Amino acid sequence: MTDAIASDPKLSTIKTQLLDLFCQKAYQEGDFTLSSGQKSSYYINGKQVTLHPQGALAIGQLLLNLLPADTQAVAGLTLGADPIVSAVSVVSAYENRPVIALIIRKEAKGHGTQAYIEGPSLPEGAKVVVLEDVVTTGQSALKAVDRLQDAGYKVAEVIALVDRQQGGGELYASQGLKFIALFTIADLQQRWRELNP
């Protein structure tokens, strides 16, 4: 599927620009503790790119082109996925290929419908793709997949902006989910070193 990007000169250029934006705005080296509890010598603050106007537009354009044609919605666990699903949904409207955005709460809403899933209602069996900014162990996106499946939706794929290659892809494969990442950590580190010799 990423071949769709590689074979399109415009999308390929957008992908390169997005990689540079990640290197300039989101990637840092130092001593960090990740949300998974793991220690790391680098950190990727995806929100520095997903909430950036050019970043959001590029993400919407690229991820929309990676979605299976029958995708009815994109979804992700709040907060990291919120700007990503919104960007894809907005770009889909401009491309006349509407895709709904859904946001998965970490805890059920404490009032009203007490729902885990925010966004327009879809018919049972609707095809939803889960989006994520940075995948480490894969647990966040898997929680979103579980919530969506519990609601009666079909989820067969997870798409991430960056794969840290620390077990997320293997976790998704063990659950029968297809996994695509725009970039691997190796892509970011190589480009970061080129930009910061």
From TrEMBL:
Domain of life: Bacteria
Keyword Glycosyltransferase: yes
Required cofactor names: Mg(2+)
Ligand binding (5-phospho-alpha-D-ribose 1-diphosphate): 105-106, 109, 111, 132-140
Annotated binding of orotate, by residue: 136, 164
Principal EC category: transferase
Keywords from the named record: Glycosyltransferase, Magnesium, Pyrimidine biosynthesis, Transferase
Keyword rRNA-binding: no
Signal sequence interval, chain numbering: none
A Pfam family it matches: Pribosyltran
Pathway membership, UniProt: Pyrimidine metabolism; UMP biosynthesis via de novo pathway; UMP from orotate: step 1/2
Purpose of the protein: Catalyzes the transfer of a ribosyl phosphate group from 5-phosphoribose 1-diphosphate to orotate, leading to the formation of orotidine monophosphate (OMP).
Family membership noted in the UniProt record: Belongs to the purine/pyrimidine phosphoribosyltransferase family. PyrE subfamily.
Subunit structure: Homodimer.
Cross-referenced HAMAP family: PyrE
UniProt-recorded name of the protein: Orotate phosphoribosyltransferase
Organism: Merismopedia glauca CCAP 1448/3
